[in-house]
Amino acid sequence: MTYRLGTKQKRLWNPRLDNHYGNLCFYCKTEFIEVEHMIQGMTNPLLMEFDHLNDREYDNRIENIVKSHKSCNSKKRYDKTMKDQALEQLRLNESQGIAEAGTIEEIPEHKENEAQRNERDEIYSNIEFMKISIEYLESNLQGDCIRLPYSSTVDSIAMRCFKQVGHGSPVSIRRTLNMVTSDEGDYYRYREGGKQWISKQNPLLSK
Predict the structure, then answer these.
(1) Do 46 and 71 form a contact (C-beta atoms < 8 A)?
(2) Domains assigned to the chain
(3) Residue 39: DSSP 8-state
């Protein structure tokens, strides 16, 4: 399971990380090349990634996050010196903290674009929620399992979204499930035995 940093979290933390470390790879101290296409048959090794200092992808404290080259991030998995460097930095961050950037929110054009950024974040979240919800239903409605209890399904998908995207709420997941169980959706929601259920099969045809 991957526990990703959310888009908004990355955007808010980016100026703080730059202020703390400089806009350089934490490991090799050189600049990033933000080109996402293939370079000489391989993915750009100098693309920026967010790395967890202690290699625990669920530990999304800002003290545990640095920016690194894609290649340095991969190399660190097998390099003890880099791992020791990362853990020493984490201990330093935990004792001293990461300062606020302090100025970016005060720029007028930044405030003007906040609504647009929030809208993009919401669109991204809705796409991820839909993808995760469908993956959950497809993986669980198999074999002898022909239906799932609606309430616990909402909570389970919300937790999975929180782990994978960084946030998620039962209210958002209910809206998503309402869509996939609508007349245009591929699933059915119905009440039986005092409970709500979700199934892949039409309950009127399966009885």
Answers:
(1) yes
(2) 7-96 (no CATH), 114-206 (1.10.10.10)
(3) E
Q: What is the pLDDT of residues 66-100, one digit of tens each?
A: 999 888 988 998 999 999 999 999 999 999 888 87
In sequence order, the 6+-apart residues with CB closer than 8 A to the CB of 98 are: 16, 17, 20, 62, 63
- 65, 73, 150 from 59: Cα distances, Å: 9, 16, 30
Q: Which two tokens stand for residue 76?
A: 């660190």
State the Cα–Cα distance between residues 201 and 186, nearest whole angstrom. Answer: 9
Cβ proximity of 188 and 194 under 8 Å = no
118: nearest Cα among 12, 3, 2, 17: 12
**Tell me: the pLDDT tens digits for 33-74?**
875 544 445 567 888 889 999 998 888 889 999 999 888 988
Those residues whose C-beta lies under 8 Å from the C-beta of residue 126, and which sit 6 or more positions away, are: 172, 176
Burial of 153 (0-12, 13-18, 19+ CB in 10 A): buried
Residue pair 148/194 in contact by the 8 Å Cβ criterion: no
